[in-house]
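<instruction>
Derive structure tokens from the sequence

<record> Sequence and structure tokens follow
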Amino acid sequence: MQRNDPAQYDQLADQWWDPRGGFAMLQWIAASRAGHVPPASTPGAVLVDLACGGGLMAPHVQRLGYRHVGVDIGLPGLQVARRHGVGVVRGSVLAVPLADGCADVVTAGEILEHVEDPGQVLAESARLLKPGGLLVIDSIAATRLAPLVAVRIAERMPGGPPPGIHDPALFVDRRALLATADRLGLDLRLVGLRPSVRDLVAWRRGRRDTVRMRTMPWTGILFAGSATKRAEPGAERRTPGSARTVGS
């Protein structure tokens, strides 16, 4: 089995919004991610959703009052996201085809553990953000315990990730991530995440359609983070690539 194959997301595109499908836990984490985002403070405020997949953030972003722009490389997922009201852009999270300073909020959920250089995702996020803008992330930590829990156990459990979707070799070094964020002018703070045990039991028994994620101090398996972009006059600006939007 080839791990971390992007084609797997395309093959499972019909399951993005299935509360008991292969992306069930991503739905739970999307709701948790939205909890870190404040309501839009101005009309027309933009939230850029990196690796948006099927647009699971859509109902939360709409409720919070942002214009929702989703970026992903997978066409099937983007087509699903568009049906849920997301303005979609096809492109890589490592070279996002959007202008500097276009976003009030950037979310980069469940993507850092799928790329060779998570620091480049942070760099693109910082480029997209306006000064004072907010970055929200979540990912899997590079620890000895994480492969056991997030791969060997979770892939065999209902609600867990599809088999093969994660490669433990790409799990994220939190110290390196924090250091990179600081260099980019992002004041990043991390917190651990876990599913509510009570909700998980009720979900498995068919009594709930979703599971709430709980925060905890320990970040050694699944973690979330939020960062405000500091104002740094004179920072170098890079020219983004041309946008590729999904057609009808």
In short: The chain has eight helices and eight strands. The longest helix spans residues 24-34. Strands lie at 46-50, 67-72, 87-90, 103-109, 129-140, 186-195, 213-216, 222-229.
